[in-house]
Amino acid sequence: MNPYKLGIFGGPASTRLNYINMSDTEKIIQVNIPAEIQERIDKNELKLIGTQVRDARGRIVCNLTSLERPQGLSFSPNITVNFENCAFISGALIAPSLQDALDAQRKEFLSNTLKINRVLENQKNDLVAAVAKFDATFQVLLNGSSLISQSDAFSSGLESATLLASHLGSYVQDYIDSTTVYHHRATETYQEYKHGTYLRPPIITRRKFESFTDHQANFFAYSFLQILNKINIISMCYDRKILFNYFDNLDALEKTLVEALNFVMYEMGNEGDIYQMCYRSIEGNAARSGVNDVRLERIKKYDKVNDWGSLIARSSETGKVTHYDPERLSSIEALIDILEDIANLRQRALQFNGVQLDGLSELAAIRRLLFKDPD
Predict the structure, then answer these.
(1) How far apart are CA 252 and CA 308, in angstroms?
(2) Are residue 37 and residue 139 in the same domain, yes or no?
(3) 2 lies in some domain
(4) Which runs of consecutive H residues, i.e. helices, occur in the chain?
(5) Does residue 121 belong to any structural domain of this protein?
(6) Residues 33 and 138 in one domain
(7) For residue 132, is it within any domain?
(8) Which residue has the higher pLDDT, 100 or 200?
(9) What pTM does this model have?
């Protein structure tokens, strides 16, 4: 059964970049400001200071933090914040920065022959074409063309998302299976190792990972999330309901990616897990390039096996030298990025879950902003 199956069911805002200094670094937050609020800002009745809206006396009257796209991620946790019957809308509503990255990566995939199995290679062009078809349809809709309706764009997105969903698990599995494993008998892929004719499987001493961001699984996972987000926005705005099976689809992809994360994070054979790789010395040098406690704390949030006590005890461990694989660490972080984006997309829908969407002012504001809908 396909775990990602989608069910089928029948005054303009201005954009401003606001700046806030945090820890001596400039942080850019982009929101779409309601015209009525902009007028009050121009009259100095309200002020925007970073993520805070303050009145003339300096009191905080609204916080826009939830509209911010966290660093390294593509989606903000919320898409709107209501203030005095006006809606601030996140600049990451349809994730334009992600769209730019996917467009560039799609061209690269079409021009290169990547190291994936032949069956997946043959499917690649159909999946990429499906993504491109929806992107073009949605863009025509955004441009206000009378040739494309919201229903046309929704149907195109539903078709593309369903096709992607039916193959996503295979691409994630291919990432796992293409990992190089080392043992005393041979160097081979994990796929070959699993299906080897060993009387007793040899103990793996080391693995070499491909960067997850370079694998097509990353591209198709983000393409799926991008399409799911857009058709859910159409669904909420025009069908007045959250996309059917929206949460189930997020949960299913999350489960698949967690399995990949566990494969990369935990030990196999005698190689050591990610903590041992990062903290044990390499060729006599204790320092690991690019490794810091903040990055490891982020990883620990997804670790369901080790507690902090056992990890602290490891900090003084000595023993075998473990091979440092930067692609292993970057792949873990790439997978966590997607998982956190899934959490943000889940939160976006929860913002409206159980709410009567018909006549909701926030969705009316989105229709005007995105689809030039005068209501």
Answers:
(1) 29
(2) no
(3) no
(4) 35-42, 96-111, 118-142, 150-177, 190-194, 216-234, 246-265, 274-279, 293-300, 308-314, 326-350, 361-371
(5) yes
(6) no
(7) yes
(8) 100
(9) 0.88
